[in-house]
Write a structure and sequence with these properties.
- It is a single chain.
- By secondary structure, the protein is α+β, with helices and mostly antiparallel strands.
- It has nine helices and seven strands.
- The protein starts with a helix and ends with a helix.
- The relative contact order is 0.11.
- The N terminus is likely disordered.
């Protein structure tokens, strides 16, 4: 059905994806989840993290941390006339036609990229204008050049350029960590196929925050209007993956989605028995 109704003609085109719409974006007060077919919408999905060369005349300073974007066909429709098919910036196929991968590889591949920390987008040729953001060889060369430049200047403290670079790298590491967490959670098995949350449990954020069930009403932050509130994008509660890993070191705890969803916690007093139990667990 999707192959006839939409532009895409790959397996991704007719698959539904469970998408998280973060709180704080587009005036949303709460995080929302929905199953959608990507090709039904005009959108771009961020994937790999790279160093991108955005201004060739600036040498080493032209390279910035960025993220490549996969674009749906509907997102490309308004701008397809700006892309050069001869350079393989866009490829037109008819329904049911399979693109010639060898021909595409010879021409090179292009991708829309977003500079991290900026609302700036550029179309880059991946083979010549990008490198993996965690490339050790490139990082040594890049930061050696940066240090040499800084040594020749007598400015005190970090320059504005250095601060922006630090922010961009921090965003890259945060995005990489989020992708790692998603992959690890998704790779765990679901033992009970009839689980009541079987269709949503693959997204850890779809579960309620892991917070003490016996928390007093006076401890709830939302009831105190004078206390600073967390950003809606910051997830609350304990880390389910970390708790399962810690329990798995000393106990035979099943590493599965069922276990992660079933975790509960409550506040307990620091009695000698509790402290002794923690000490014994630490010795194992």
């Amino acid at each position: 059905f999707a192959e006839d109704a939409f532009y895409g003609n790959t397996d991704i085109s007719d698959c539904e994806f469970y998408v998280r719409f973060l709180a704080g974006k587009n005036d949303r007060k709460k995080t929302m989840h929905a199953w959608i077919i990507l090709e039904e919408h005009s959108l771009a999905v961020g994937i790999s993290l790279i160093w991108g060369e955005f201004v060739r005349s600036k040498g080493i300073n032209a390279w910035k941390p960025a993220q490549t974007l996969l674009r749906t066909s509907l997102e490309l429709v308004p701008v397809c006339h700006l892309l050069n098919e001869q350079l393989n910036q866009i490829s037109f196929t008819t329904v049911g036609e399979t693109p010639n991968e060898e021909s595409l590889e010879k021409k090179g591949r292009w991708a829309l990229t977003k500079q991290l920390g900026h609302e700036s987008y550029s179309l880059l040729e991946l083979a010549n204008e990008s490198v993996d953001v965690f490339s050790e060889g490139f990082s040594r060369h890049f930061f050696h050049g940066k240090n040499s430049t800084s040594a020749n200047t007598k400015e005190r403290g970090k320059s504005e350029t250095a601060r922006v670079l630090d922010l961009s790298m921090a965003l890259a590491f945060a995005e990489s960590e989020e992708q790692r967490r998603v992959r690890e959670w998704y790779s765990m098995p679901l033992q009970n196929a009839a689980h009541k949350q079987a269709l949503t449990i693959m997204d850890e954020s779809a579960l309620p925050p892991l917070e003490p069930s016996n928390k007093k009403d006076t401890d709830k932050e939302d009831e105190n209007p004078h206390r600073p509130q967390l950003c809606p994008s910051i997830e609350r509660g304990l880390d389910r993956q970390l708790i399962m890993k810690l329990l798995g070191r000393n106990e035979h705890v099943e590493q599965s989605l069922d276990t992660g969803a079933s975790l509960t916690c409550e506040l307990v007093g620091c009695s000698p028995a509790v402290i002794s139990q923690f000490r014994e667990a630490g010795k194992k």
